[in-house]
Design goal:
The complex is a heterodimer of chains A (428) and B (312). Chain A has 428 residues and is of the alpha/beta class. Chain A is 32% helix and 22% strand. Chain A has 14 helices and 21 strands. Chain A is globular and about 65 Å long. The mean pLDDT of chain A is 96. Chain B contains eleven helices and nine strands. Chain B has helices spanning 16-30, 58-69, 90-99, 114-119, 137-151, 169-180, 209-213, 237-244, 248-251, 274-277, 284-304, and strands spanning 47-52, 73-78, 104-109, 125-131, 158-162, 184-188, 204-205, 218-221, 259-261. In chain B, strand 5 (158-162), helix 6 (169-180) and strand 6 form a beta-alpha-beta unit. Chain B is globular and about 55 Å long. The model of chain B is unreliable at 308-312 (pLDDT under 50). Classes of the chains: A alpha/beta (428), B alpha/beta (312). The A-B interface holds A 199-210, 276-277, 318, 321-326 and B 12, 89-91, 109, 111-114, 116-117, 131-135, 169, 172, 195-198, 200-201.
Chain lengths: 428, 312
């Protein structure tokens, strides 16, 4: 049985940008051929399933390298299954799960559990990340090699920073030896000081303790220094401030081996949008100022920011329907990331090819996997409907959690189809 | 005019005309406390819950006294006696209170926005008796009442507020309220206690105390909250008093008829010297007296007054 995706624009930056049909056989891309609009052929062939994708864009599978799946341990917020259904709907053929589950993914048993669950589901793929330190407690290194053997693609203590600079140095050296990337949650906790939103007028206005930009950029600058010291690559998660963007820009110019990501909310919203103690606007790092939002966009435009990841952080009303300062940080993002990011294209900040780089190609490169549309490669593909206009409605989310600040927002562009290993896992 | 607000959550959400109406009503209530029998039947049969999740003596007693003088039944719950210690969420506690049909819930809570959270979920009126570092509207209103009573107006007056602005809900509400009513508000504190962007609430930030109180009609001293700081915001109380304490010498920089206010409780010898606190300029006890009248007015307006009247 073959699948033919017909009539779409095929866009794989650096490889192909043309109107071509793709033929998929089993789990592989079999051929890329000139489009045929012969309807007779469609009707007569019974061994080929036709996907009419006229007006659509076929791109290499989108990859979200920053996702909290919550299983094991907090299945009431999200399971691997619901998280992967949300991923498929969001257009992601693969995601990286963060290790801050319960128990923490700091050993190969947990890694294997996640991978086995995901394999059985046959939805989007999971490339787990493991903890840098045991229990992500920041004291002693976890068995990173063992987890790597089990299938982790990166390490991170995401959710908290690795405060001890010497341990961070050693972690970078150790991981360099294993050729595994380190993802950094950049936050200086003493200056964040228990704050709940961006420090500035709006925090003052609402009487909410603020988190200054420096809470992020201090750690970014520290870890740039440690990357230079050790020669190990560092990937910065969820960059939100202009100071961090500038520090990374300058370090890249010097040739330091760093990469970074931002999340759609940092280029879509600001602290002015935090209103009436709505905890769906509370995440860490917090929504920053308009100046920071512009700097993040500029960072995406000039390539300082390599990629977009959602920091999908599901929470139930138990964590969210409470006092603002007591509410959990984080918002869901898998099912809104593509639509929000497409706005950068509609607004002229990025070309479609640049967006595909930031949501498919660069993420793949960082975790060391192939993601090219070529005959013989695994058929992990996303088909984008660029013209579909709709209003974001959390009730339609596949994710178990609905904690989004984007409810009611009108957006343009969405997932038409998600294909993993040649199998359709989502079709609008 | 009719008072239409269900809740009193912060000063920001009150129109100047509503503030004036509250102050007028409070002024009328004040006389009741001067009577030999300090009780009127106005809110007979109404139930008021005083739900205090933070320690308080003056504010709680003031609300309680206000309720009783209007013949309402007031019931107090504190943090230790509430189900919050058993792990119940604030919303669930509020809904349970609501099920007992109170007319007003007065909430004090350590989290900013807590009264806003429950006001959306209950039909009872919610009065914010202080939320985190956000707002303390009844305090700001009684401050405005006291100033207006003494000065005959608020508009055009120079109001100086000195102390821990960053952690003070009183300061935020006073700045918003006084500037809304046309006063010139000037604040002063160690730079560690000036929150980012505070000017946009409607005040100017003085470089030092002398500049701040020069020509002041009203000086409002804020309590240094010893429990909130670990010598990270200023080195010692001694040094604080030297730079930001209100003493006789500094008082002379203000207008002759300046009035001195303090929301209490005072730290004598730290933010205010005893001779100033006990001087004729001091309105500190008058504030407490007005607090009862002001809170009677709030109860009357949300629970028994014109909000429920059929017509103007």
């Amino acid at each position: 049985m073959r699948i033919r995706i017909k009539g779409a624009r095929l866009l794989d930056p650096g490889n192909i940008d043309d109107n071509k049909d793709i033929i998929i056989k089993n789990h592989l891309i079999e051929a890329i051929v000139d489009p045929i609009f012969d309807s007779k052929e469609n009707e007569t062939r019974t061994d080929i399933e036709i996907i009419d994708a006229r007006g659509m864009i076929v791109v290499p599978g989108l990859i979200d390298i920053h996702v909290h799946l919550r299983e094991p341990g907090q299945e009431y917020k999200e399971t691997i299954e619901t998280g992967l259904m949300a991923a498929a709907k969001g257009g992601f053929t693969a995601i990286c799960s963060m290790p801050n589950t319960n128990p923490v993914n700091d050993n190969s048993q947990v890694t294997k559990f996640i991978i086995n669950c995901a394999n059985e589901l046959g939805l989007s793929k999971v490339y787990p990340t493991g903890a840098i330190t045991q229990g992500s407690m920041g004291n002693t290194l976890a068995e990173i090699y063992d987890m790597q053997q089990a299938g982790i693609v990166a390490v991170t203590d995401d959710g908290k920073p690795l405060e001890n600079s010497n341990l961070m140095r050693r972690a970078l050296e150790y991981c360099k030896g294993l050729d595994i990337p380190v993802f950094v949650h950049a936050e200086e906790l003493s200056i964040a000081d228990g704050g709940s939103m961006n420090e500035g007028f709006f925090a003052t206005f609402w009487g909410i303790k603020g988190i200054p930009n420096a809470a992020e950029s201090i750690m970014v600058v520290r870890d740039i220094a440690l990357s230079e010291l050790t020669g190990a690559p560092v990937h910065f998660c969820h960059i939100s401030t202009k100071e961090s963007v500038e520090a990374i820009r300058q370090a890249k110019k010097r040739g330091v081996k760093i990469t970074c990501e931002t999340a759609p909310h940092y280029f879509t919203l600001t602290d002015e949008d935090v209103k009436d103690y709505n905890t769906n606007f509370k995440m860490n790092p917090p929504l920053r100022s308009e100046e920071d939002r512009q700097a993040v966009i500029q960072g995406l435009v000039d390539g300082t920011i390599d990629l977009i990841a959602s920091d999908h952080a599901p929470h139930s009303i138990i964590e969210k329907d409470v006092e603002f300062d007591r509410a959990a940080f984080g918002i869901v993002g898998l099912e809104t990331s593509l639509s929000l990011s497409l706005k950068l294209v509609h607004d002229g900040f990025l070309t479609m090819a640049e967006l595909v780089n930031k949501m498919a190609k660069h993420p793949a490169k960082i975790i060391g996997i192939k993601n090219d549309i070529r005959p013989g490669n695994i058929a992990d593909l996303t088909i984008i409907d660029p013209g579909h206009t709709y209003e974001i409605d959390p009730a339609t989310f596949k994710s178990k959690s609905k904690n989004t600040p984007f409810a009611g927002l009108k957006v343009k562009g969405s997932t038409f189809l998600t294909m993993v290993n040649g199998k359709v896992v989502y079709l609008k | 005019m009719r008072f239409t607000k269900k809740d009193i959550l912060d000063i920001e959400s009150l129109e100047p005309r509503e503030i004036s109406m509250i102050l007028d009503t409070a002024q009328g209530m004040k006389e009741i406390s001067e009577r030999p029998v300090k009780k009127v039947p106005t809110l007979r049969g109404k139930t008021i819950v005083l739900f205090f999740q933070e320690p308080s003596t003056r504010t709680k007693l003031s609300f309680d006294t206000a309720a009783k003088r209007l013949s309402a039944d007031s019931i107090s719950i504190s943090k230790s006696s509430s189900s919050i210690v058993k792990g119940e969420t604030l919303i669930d506690t509020a809904k349970n209170l609501e099920a007992m049909k109170p007319d007003v819930i007065v909430l004090r809570h350590p989290s900013s926005g807590a009264p806003h959270l429950i006001a959306k979920r209950v039909n009872s009126s919610v009065i914010n008796a202080g939320d985190g570092i956000h707002a303390h509207p009844s305090q700001a209103l009684l401050d405005m009442m006291s100033v207006r009573e003494k000065k005959g107006k608020i508009e055009g007056l120079n109001i100086s507020i000195i102390g821990d602005i960053a952690h003070s809900r009183v300061a935020r509400s006073d700045i918003t309220g006084f500037s809304k009513m046309g006063a010139n508000v000037c604040i002063c504190a160690p730079k560690t206690m000036i929150p980012m962007g505070i000017e946009s609430l409607g005040c100017i930030v003085s470089p030092n105390m002398e500049t701040c109180i020069e020509g002041a009609d009203v000086i409002m001293m804020l309590r240094i909250q010893k429990e909130r700081q670990d010598n990270i915001l200023f080195p010692t109380e001694r040094e604080y008093a030297t730079l930001f304490g209100l003493n006789k010498a500094r008082l002379n920089l203000a207008k002759k008829d300046v009035i001195v206010m303090h929301p209490g409780p005072m730290n004598r010898g730290v933010e205010i010297s005893s001779d100033v606190a006990d001087s004729d300029s001091s309105m500190i006890l008058e504030q407490v007296t007005n607090g009862v009248a002001l809170r009677m007015a709030l109860f009357y307006l949300v629970a028994g007054g014109s909000r429920h009247a059929d017509s103007d």
